[in-house]
Design a protein that fits this description.
By secondary structure, this protein is α/β, with parallel strands linked by helices. It contains nine helices and twelve strands. α6 links the parallel β7 and β8. The two termini are 27 Å apart. α1 packs across α9 and α5 packs across α6. The strands form two sheets. A six-stranded mixed sheet has the order 2-1-3-5-6-4, with helices on both faces. 46% of the residues are buried.
């Protein structure tokens, strides 16, 4: 029997993760025997758990909140997107060193393509300015959007994004009174029980919202969006599948088919 290849997802919380089911579906397509674990370090203990996983013949890991910045710092080497965003969602041990990758942004764009959503000419609002937000800004900075506004409690993080990407796109801090065509939530509000406190004025009857968080049904942010007048709202399940497919290809040199996967996992 072929040796089992070991993979994992790191996050906190991580018990809701659909990554194990997704990667097992990909492995079936390749006829590959894999183990895929969920690992939940404490907030300051990522490196210890990552070292342990890779020291026990771990090959690849997905990394989610709140460890994407830690994953970038942990790796021996990194791809260009990880370096630019200082954040990674994929780790791979290639037999010599551990390399970090960031497949979030391209996974997001691939899902928009699947959903036939074009960003061209749109006024876009990004909620949050952390690691996931940096990946999204990087991915859309080469698109012909009209403008990008960022809503965050950290002006310092907003300024960093403005300084880095304003040469490519029109980018600014959120201000009241402006409507947006497409709103992307990169914050973890859908994971919390407390009420969502975003301003309601940025939504109109034509707005589409997209929550990077995912559930099999409707996320808290999706419900909030639709209750406050948005036209359509998507969650991040499609993005999760697409970024996972890119990770799987890095680890196994095999491009999995993602079509129809949202309905069966």
């Amino acid at each position: 029997m072929d040796e089992i290849k070991k993979f994992a997802v790191f996050g906190n919380p991580v018990n809701h993760s659909l990554s194990p089911a997704i990667h097992k579906e990909f492995a079936k397509q390749q006829n590959l025997n894999i183990q895929y674990k969920m690992i939940e370090p404490e907030s300051d203990d990522f490196e210890t758990h990552a070292q342990s996983f890779f020291s026990k013949k771990g090959i690849g890991a997905n990394v989610t909140l709140p460890f994407k910045d830690d994953a970038y710092k942990f790796a021996d080497d990194a791809d260009d997107i990880s370096r630019e965003c200082e954040s990674s969602n994929t780790l791979w041990f290639n037999g010599e060193k551990i390399k970090a990758f960031n497949t979030d942004g391209q996974g997001f764009l691939n899902d928009l393509t699947n959903k036939q959503i074009s960003l061209e000419g749109l006024n876009i609002l990004l909620l949050g300015a952390g690691g996931s937000a940096r990946s999204i800004v990087h991915s859309i900075s080469e698109k012909s959007i009209k403008s990008l506004s960022i809503y965050s409690r950290s002006q310092e993080k907003i300024d960093k994004l403005v300084n880095k990407y304003s040469a490519n796109i029109r980018i600014e801090s959120y201000s009241d009174g402006k409507n947006f065509d497409f709103i992307i939530n990169t914050t973890p509000v859908s994971m919390y029980r407390k009420d969502i406190e975003f301003p309601k004025g940025f939504l109109n009857s034509a707005s589409i919202t997209y929550d990077l968080f995912y559930t099999k049904n409707q996320t808290k942010f999706q419900k909030w969006s639709l209750d406050n007048g948005a036209n359509k709202s998507y969650n991040g399940l499609g993005m999760l599948i697409e970024q996972a497919a890119l990770s799987y290809e890095i680890w196994n040199n095999f491009k999995p088919n993602t079509k129809g996967l949202e309905s069966i996992i």
